[in-house]
Structure formats: C-alpha cells, structure tokens
Write a structure and sequence with these properties.
Helices cover 4% and strands 56% of the residues. By secondary structure, the chain is mainly beta. The strands form two sheets. The chain has a six-stranded mixed β-sheet with strand order 4-3-6-1-11-10. InterPro entries: Aegerolysin-typ.
Length: 135
C-alpha cells in the first residue's frame, strides 16, 4: 500500500436482526475518501455509501482511506428506526484512533471492536447489530 493509502479503516457491519435490512444514511467523510472494498482503486462517494443495504444475517463493508487518515460518521437504520450513529477518527487529533457508537436506540444491541487504538491505520472495525433483550 502506498503512502496515500496508509491510513485506512474497514467497517464490517453485521446484521443479526431476524427481519428487515439495515440501511446506511447521512454519511459524511472528512480528510479521506471511500473506496470499493474489493477494488481500492475505485473511489466511492458519500451518496454511494448511503445506498448500502445490509440484509438480515448479512455483512456490509465500508472502506475509507487517506494519507493523513479520515474522520467520518454515518447513521444505521432498521426500517424507519435509527439504530445508531457510527463515528470514527484516525487523523491524529485529540485521540490517536477512535471509533464510537453515538445516539444508540435501546431497541438494539450494538457491539463494536477490533480496531487498533494505536497511531496508524484503524484497521478492521467489526460492528454487530442485534435486537435488544426484552426486559
């Protein structure tokens, strides 16, 4: 990988919901660009990412890169219900590498992990979405 692509992140969103699909909306990226996970030479726009649909028991992959990292956010929806906002940053700001789940609905269980907290590429981030246990 050349220096332009040295700071990368790959979000693996896994849909463990029994019905419906997860959709991506309101995608924003700063300081980098999205690319096709299967062909890193093919750039994707925020609008391309917003068209992503992840079927039940499926996996959606969103990849981004930039010489100095990237910062981005996107919302995940199940039907008309917002599941959460995902936010990542690896531009060497206040935090070396950061991935966080914001504004999460109590109807869903969201688990995330796998990335590197050290300076450098965030790497692979695994996000698992399932229904919350009924109380």
């Amino acid at each position: 990988m050349d220096n332009y692509n040295s700071q990368w992140v790959s979000l693996h969103i896994r849909d463990h919901l029994k019905d419906g699909e997860i959709t991506v909306q309101n995608t924003v990226i700063e300081g980098g660009e999205f690319h096709n996970p299967e062909d890193r030479r093919k750039s994707l726009t925020e609008e391309d990412i917003d068209e992503m649909k992840i079927s039940s028991d499926g996996i959606g992959e969103i990849s981004a890169r930039g010489r100095r990292g990237s910062e981005g956010r996107l919302d995940l929806f199940h039907g008309d219900t917002k599941i959460c906002e995902l936010h990542w940053e690896n531009r060497g700001g206040e935090y070396e590498n950061l991935v966080e789940v914001l504004d999460e609905s109590d109807k869903y269980r969201i688990e995330h992990g796998g990335w590197s907290p050290q300076a450098g590429p965030l790497g692979h981030v695994f996000v698992d979405i399932s229904a919350a246990k009924k109380k």
